[in-house]
C-alpha cells in the first residue's frame, strides 16, 4: 500500500498533546459533588479527552429504570453547573439537556445514538454498575460494546451482568465514589 507524501514547512513540529475523543457521562447526577467531578476532570486531562459530555437522565427515565432519585431534572442540572463552574476545568465540557427537552422516557440506546451523532469520536462512556447492568439487559448492548469503551463505577457494588464480564477488554473500572 503506497503512502501519500505530505509537505510541511521547514521547522514544523507535531503538537505534543493530541486530544482524542469524547467522554460521555450517563448518570442521574443527583449526589455528585466536587470530589467526584475533580477526579473526573483529572482523568479527562490525563487521557486528553477533547470533550466531556454530561448527559443527565430525566425523572421519567429514572423511574422506568427503578433508579432512586427524588431531585427534579432542572435542579440536578443547576447543581452540576454550579460545581463545575467552581472547579474551572481545563477540559472542554457540555451539559447536554436533550433528554430534559423530551420530558419522557428515553432508552439508553436512543440517548447514545443521539450523542454519538452529535459529538466527535472515539467514544468513552462512564456508567455506574446499576446503569451498566440495565444497559446489558438490552438487545442493543452487543452492538454498542463493540463501538464504545466503557468506564464502570462499582458504586452500588452490585454484581455485573455476564455480558459485561464477557467483554472485559472493552471496559475499565473507575472509582469516583469512595
List keywords for this structure.
Rossmann fold; 178 residues; 17% strand; globular; single chain
What does this molecule look like?
The chain has a single domain (22-173), classed as Rossmann fold. Helix content is 39%, strand content 17%. It is built from eight helices and six strands. The protein has helices at residues 34-46, 59-64, 73-87, 98-102, 108-118, 129-136, 141-147, 162-166, and strands at 22-27, 51-56, 92-95, 123-128, 149-153, 171-173. Strands 3-2-1-4-5-6 form a six-stranded parallel beta sheet. Helix 8 links the parallel strand 5 and strand 6. It is globular and about 60 Å long.
Please state the second-level CATH architecture: 3-Layer(aba) Sandwich
Give the uncertain stretches in residue-range form: none
Q: Could you please say which CATH topology applies here?
A: Rossmann fold
Beta-strand content estimate: 15-25%
- Give the overall shape, derived from the CA principal axes: globular
Annotated CATH homologous superfamily: HUPs
Gap between N and C termini: 50 Å
The strand line-up of the biggest sheet is: 3-2-1-4-5-6
CATH class: Alpha Beta
Mean pLDDT: 90
The total count of strands amounts to: 6
The helical percent reads 25-40%
**Total domains:** 1
Q: Find the structural class using helix and strand composition.
A: alpha/beta
The sequence of SSEs as H and E is: EHEHHEHHEHHEHE
Number of helices: 8
Q: If you compute it from the alpha carbons, what radius of gyration comes out, rounded to the nearest whole angstrom? A: 18 Å
Query: Quick one: biggest sheet?
Result: 6 strands, parallel
Amino acid at each position: 500500500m503506497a503512502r501519500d507524501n505530505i509537505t510541511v514547512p521547514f521547522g514544523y513540529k507535531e503538537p505534543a498533546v493530541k486530544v482524542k475523543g469524547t467522554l460521555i457521562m450517563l448518570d442521574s447526577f443527583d449526589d455528585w459533588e466536587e470530589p467526584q467531578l475533580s477526579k473526573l476532570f483529572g482523568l479527562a486531562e490525563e487521557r486528553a479527552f477533547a470533550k466531556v459530555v454530561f448527559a443527565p437522565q430525566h425523572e421519567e427515565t429514572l423511574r422506568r429504570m427503578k433508579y432512586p432519585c427524588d431531585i427534579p431534572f432542572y435542579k440536578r442540572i443547576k447543581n452540576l453547573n454550579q460545581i463545575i463552574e467552581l472547579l474551572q476545568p481545563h477540559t472542554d465540557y457540555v451539559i447536554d439537556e436533550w433528554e430534559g427537552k423530551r420530558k419522557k422516557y428515553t432508552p439508553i440506546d436512543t440517548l447514545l445514538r443521539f450523542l454519538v451523532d452529535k459529538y466527535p469520536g472515539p467514544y468513552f462512556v462512564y456508567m455506574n454498575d446499576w446503569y451498566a447492568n440495565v444497559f446489558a439487559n438490552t438487545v442493543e448492548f452487543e452492538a454498542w460494546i463493540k463501538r464504545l469503551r466503557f468506564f464502570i463505577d462499582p458504586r452500588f457494588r452490585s454484581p455485573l451482568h455476564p455480558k459485561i464480564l464477557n467483554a472485559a477488554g472493552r471496559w475499565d473500572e473507575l472509582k469516583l465514589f469512595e
